Amino acid sequence: MTEVLITGTGLFTPEHAIDNEALVASFNAWVDAENVRHAAAIEAGEREPLQHSSSEFIVKASGIHSRYVLDAAGILDPERMRPRLPSRSNDEPSVQCEMGLIAARQALETAGVAPGDIDMVIVACSNLERAYPAVAVELQAQLGTQGHAFDMNVACSSATFAIDLAACAIRGGNIRRALVVNPEICSAHLNFRDRDSHFIFGDACTAVVLEDAELATASVRFEILGTRLATRFSNAIRNNAGFLNRVTDSDPLASDKLFVQEGRRVFKEVCPMVAALINDHLESLGLGGGELSRLWLHQANHHMNDLIARRVLGHDPKPGQAPIILDRYANTSSAGSIIAFHLHHADLASGEVGVVCSFGAGYSAGCVVVRRQ
Ligand code: CO8
């Protein structure tokens, strides 16, 4: 069977960072102004006062200290509380294409692959800035890749689902090289006025080059031993923004058109689902958790990753065995596990095995088992 390798990865990190203190200060300023505005109703018992957020809670509950965003000023302005991205003409590159170009060029350079040698581009992420033409086709034109390109969305699992698809296309002989790109602008779909979730997300873009092993020239390469995907329907993470909003006459600015979740339920339901997926997948490959050198897990919550790592490894992860990047990046949706891989793979020795695993809305979970060559 054709061997498929990951030969390059890339990462675009936005210039602006917001730490918890700055985010909480802006949120609390908005809360105070709202409570003053509704003082009479609060006094009359007709309305509950809004509560402050706190950095201590955010760190304790999630492990997040900071996040990168495309625009900090708009988010931190208590009068606005959403990023301000200038609109672009149809003749300018789209924002996600621009982020994708930076990550993709880095991944191609690492792999030692020219854009013209890529047969397929998949832009896979939680939110796409338009319905069509596909961002992937725009990226294909900007990069100068061959073949075909398309967009896909499996929320936080978009990257691993796209890696599975690309690996299958290479194994099947339809293509020989693929580029997977994950431009996540989570800040545009986050409700910065929701105390339960205003701290959760950040922006980033990752890229991965996959090749038929016969063509690969990169010095650092990981063989894909297998991929496995799982989905189970749940409303616990939901976003009702969509093209029907216009015709159903629903309020396009209502909070259900942004990210909404029941965080505790997600935690309880997703952790066992993910641990079972990884363990079953490893078993089918004749491997056990004890043989894993690294777990590059989805980056939503530190406690979630600790719990999943324990269930897979059979013990607490050793330092560096399940790298955490959410402390600096927060949850970057599908980019998270790939950022962890990008920043923490080079030290693995030949023959060492690891798992890239993402999970999130849907529910969805994707597992990619790799071995350093
Ligand atoms: N500051 C202070 N206190 C707070 C705050 C705050 N900001 N928020 C809540 N509290 C309080 C609550 O009021 C509650 O108080 P009380 O006990 O008095 O009722 C207490 O803290 C505990 O609240 P929770 O039970 O909600 O807190 P948790 O410990 O469960 O932590 C988390 C909340 C961090 C959200 C946690 O539940 C979690 O991380 N869960 C998993 C979430 C997850 O993995 N989600 C996956 C999402 S990713 C995805 O698939 C989305 C893809 C789409 C991306 C789109 C981009 C926008």
UniProtKB/TrEMBL annotation:
Keywords in alphabetical order: Acyltransferase, Transferase
Q: Which residues form the Beta-ketoacyl-[acyl-carrier-protein] synthase III C-terminal domain?
A: 282-371
- A single MF term (Gene Ontology): 3-oxoacyl-[acyl-carrier-protein] synthase activity
**Where would I find the Beta-ketoacyl-[acyl-carrier-protein] synthase III N-terminal domain in this sequence?**
150-214
Q: Name one GO biological process term.
A: fatty acid biosynthetic process
Q: What is this protein called?
A: Beta-ketoacyl-ACP synthase III
Tell me the organism: Billgrantia pellis
